[in-house]
Design goal:
- The complex is a heterodimer of chains A (about 300) and B (about 450).
- Chain A is α/β, with parallel strands linked by helices.
- Chain A has 2 domains: about 1-220, P-loop containing nucleotide triphosphate hydrolases (Rossmann fold); about 225-285, Alpha-Beta Plaits (2-Layer Sandwich), CATH 3.30.70.
- Chain A has 9 helices and 14 strands.
- In chain A, helix 2 crosses helix 3 (about 105-120) and helix 2 packs parallel to helix 4.
- Chain A starts with a strand and ends with a helix.
- In chain B, strand 5 and strand 6 form a beta hairpin.
- Chain B folds into 2 domains: about 50-145, D-Maltodextrin-Binding Protein, domain 2; about 175-440, no CATH class.
- Chain B contains 16 helices and 6 strands.
- Chain B has a 4-stranded mixed sheet, covered by helices on one side. Chain B has a two-stranded antiparallel ribbon with strand order 5-6.
- Classes of the chains: A alpha/beta (about 300), B alpha/beta (about 450).
Chain lengths: ~300, ~450
Amino acid sequence: MSILRIEGVTKRYANHTALDNVSFVIPTGCIFGLLGPNGAGKTSLIRIITQITGADSGEIYFKDQRLKPDHIKDIGYLPEERGLYKKMKVGEQLLYLAQLKGLSKDEAVARIKEWVARFEIKEWMNKHIEDLSKGMQQKVQFMATVMHEPSLIILDEPFSGFDPINANLIKDEILRLRDNGATIIFSTHRMESVEELCDNIALINRARKVLDGPVREIKDTYKTDTFQVIGNGRLLITSPDFEVLEQHENHGVFRAAIKLLEGATPNDLLRYLIQRVEVHSFVELVPSINDIFIRKVKETHHA
Amino acid sequence: MHKIWLIIQREYLTRVRKKSFIIMTFLTPLLLAAFMVIPAWLATISDSDETVMVLDESGLFLDKLESKEDLKLIPVAGSLDQAKTVYQETDYTALLHIPKLDLDNPEGIRIYSKKNTSLQVKFRLENMLENEIENQRFVASGIDRDMLNSMKANIDVTTVNLSERGEQDSNVWVTSGAGIIGAVIIYFFIFLYGVQIMRGVIEEKTNRIVEVMISSVKPFQLMMGKIVGIAGVGLTQFLLWVVLSTIVVGGVQAAFGIKPAPTPIEQLQAGRAAAAGEEEQTEEAASNSETLAEVSGAIANLNFPLIIGCFLFYFLGGYLLYGSLFGAIGAAVDNETDTQQFMFPITIPLIISFIMSYTVVIKNPDGPVAFWMSIIPFTSPIVMMVRVPFGVPASELLLSMALLVLGFIFTTWIASRIYRVGILMYGKKINYKELSKWLFYRV
């Protein structure tokens, strides 16, 4: 089942097109990366999903229903531009935002207690937002985003502004929420930052979707059957099954990138190598999402 | 509806709990009480008595100038130089020197003093001398002063309203006063709290909370919640002022047994009395108490339910009309310094109606200017308030009210169109052309 189905969404502004016939599906319970450079249209798409703006054409289905205002309370959104009411106390602010998402006062209070215990921020509850550090504010904002336990959580550039410790804390929280059944959308232009977390991705460039699908499949599609080998000895490959793309040698230690040609398997290469050199490391060179993106963008440009 | 209510609550509570609100609310009645009580108190402790030495070389005023309770006159004889030396050794206020005078051309009278003479002393001395010279001239030309006084006329026309309710004593001062007070309060209320709406919107924009908010609520809800919440703050403050002022002023009066300083109306009457000269004071006092009775009668005869009803209506109507526009300005800009160009067209009708209220409208509350300005929604909240105490035909009142309602529905519509685009727009200088486009954006 899919939590979100985007079908042919187009959004135009006065003098540019933000989204051009974008379609993809976000499966339930995954961590989904919405990737693309700045200005690609990610935020426009998110604003349509969160019903801040409307699409010019196309449809979005949330849990197989056409998106409607009532769905708002089942979506949590952390915008790229973070902000809270500076003069409000942390507790009041959380209560207010949770209630606006449709929680009753009692429910909201109970949830706040739970989260406060988890993040160990009890002593902060009566402080004004403006007296908190940036990192603390981010934590509060993250809590406000997920407090109402939405089934879809949208995080726009989630790790910008977090120090490494808090970023890890948030990562763990995200994984926990996913394990509890929530679907998470990461939107970011820093693709390497979320690669390891994402199950599925969609790449957007210049208002168009470039690529989407499970990360594993995409990588499989784009892998080049190239392996990195590090070892001792003199490497000299003469077999027609393999091609050396790159080779360095330093004090008897070599490092080489070797591509498997038609029909050869990694084991064939390994067997071939073992007979000639001492292998220390044998790793498949998998393209990063960033590499794939760049390749894909180049392809579409040439096309 | 539930969400709007939450927003109203937040907007209301965060403002009402602010220190500035609490201080303003309690300080203003205290200041008001101070303004009323301190002048009265100062008046009771009269200034230290003044003593003036009088050197009358003309001999015209000898025995004629009488010492008053707080202005003692001490006649001295001798030459001016001698008198000056004597004066230097005393702590008297001044030395009045009257040289030999020609009754037809009295010149050369001087006041010598160590410090600058106060205006009051100067006026009082002048007044005495003038009276005495007039008297002497009457005697010289054979006119009897008492006869002249009996010929003087003093007319105070009592105004009476002829209406369905029968004849009622009215008082132009009271009627105008009631209208102007209402208009002034509405004027300041729109400004003070309109600007608060604007600031609130700018704050949400600069804090970047707005995107979080409108992923939960509709922009319109956010805007209306703010406007209504702040209206509540204003009403609360206003009611607290009325209640606290009454308590404080009443309390002070009871505690010190001080009568408050005269109201502007009384002051005006007193001003006329003063102009009439000292001699008629007793007569004037009688007519003063008459006027007071007339004033209180006129106050009692004001149609209070109507005035208060209209006040509340125009108070809220005007606030809503302008408040949404202030909100739209807040949404269109990034910070307060950019608001100037948009504030201008909003403040102009307000200021014009305020100025016209106490110039043209108050003089001719049924004239064409007053009529049109009290019908047009942008000026009616202030101008109509001035007209209401004078009596306005029901049809005009209803027309004005209906137009005001339409007016604020219209401005709220415009404002919400600008608002929903503006709050998500950052770092862009906005001009009117851009704003007008926003009205028809599909969002």
